[in-house]
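BUG: 3D viewer hangs when loading the predicted structure for this chain

Environment: internal workstation, default settings.
Expected: structure renders.
Actual: progress bar stalls at 90%.

Input used:
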Amino acid sequence: MLSKSKKLVISLFCGVVGIDLGFQSAGFEVAVAIDNNPKVLELYRINFPDTLVLCRDISDISAAEIREIIQNKYPDWDGEIAAVIGGPPCQGFSVAGKQDVNDERSQLVIKFIDLVVALNPLMFVMENVPAIEWKKFSHITSNAITLIEEHYFLSKWLLTASDYSVPQKRQRAIWVGSKLAPVNAPSRSDKRFSVREAIPKVSVFDAIADLSYIPINSQTDTWEWNSEWGEKGEYAQYLEKIFPNSSSSQKDIITGCKATVHTVATQQKYADTKPGKKEPTTWAYRLSMNAFSPTLRAGSGNRTSSRPIHYEQARVITVREAARLHSFPDWFNFGTSKLAAHKAIGNSVPPLLAYAIAKTLSIQLEQQSPRRKSALKTLSASSFFGLTHAPNFAYRETVSFLIPSVRVEEAIKKCSGKKYSLREIIFVDDS
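Structure tokens produced before the viewer hung:
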């Protein structure tokens, strides 16, 4: 049964659950998660065994099929979808890749939007790299934007993860569509999104210093937090507060601790590299303890995706340290493959960033009255509040129509002298 306090969400290109974790913790319920990578979905099932996951390509699944699956899972579901969330693969746009304008993966943005429109949620969130806004990709994005604006108010955000207590200089383009009203980006000064009320910035040291108790060359992947080490750091405790684990037996278990074994020569190269600089042969960046981590990437190439070097120890960071720098809680299990784990982390949305986005959407949903939601459900894209134009105009010109007891002549006067005309009058029961 779907809890009345939960808002139903569908996750496309769900990956390892970074964005889903943020939405789950902000009061949404992911009804179904879809991805075509079976290995990634294995990790999803490990961490969220109660969520229905489908190993499908979004090109081969219809909105009707997804709705039927949800209805079977929640027989009392009223059909409303609060949001569709996802991040179509970004390799075609990424500056770390070839940025091929003909990369077929770039077309997945259109397929994502097509499925969103067919599912008809109240809102959607699409995450991608900032380069998606570049002019060279406008032949793709302009088509997507045109389709979106026929159905949604579109808000575009450029967010930096470090502004939301993620110790990483990761920027992401976020497209938010809403049938209710344009959505402002989450405030960077909002105390709900910061570890400390006065200092929202979290450094590398804040994030991973307490993990230094684990032996430097440990080949043991799983450790139990030792009480002799003292309490976990403030940041780790904050993550566990925002993203609680229902399994008390796993509370003190930490996975992903197995270190990479380096040659003596490599260790010396790393030791000689100053914090904040790159090692010249491997191009590995050495973390600076009082700064942010660079963007953690999904690949493994030296030039673009090498793992950072620990700020104090002559080794690259472990999976758990990468997870902390990405704002995953310690209970989150990335499996036993270090390569797959680092790739999954690099491909995911930092959960704290996703949490800030989700809370912002949740606030707007809660602020809308049932009457307004009901009215919006009755409207088609071509006649949003009786106007033959896209929602962005309708919002600016007719938001005052949403108050009770609106008179038709007021609506007509509002449109007078403009190229838009009233197409139909929709009467809403204000009782």
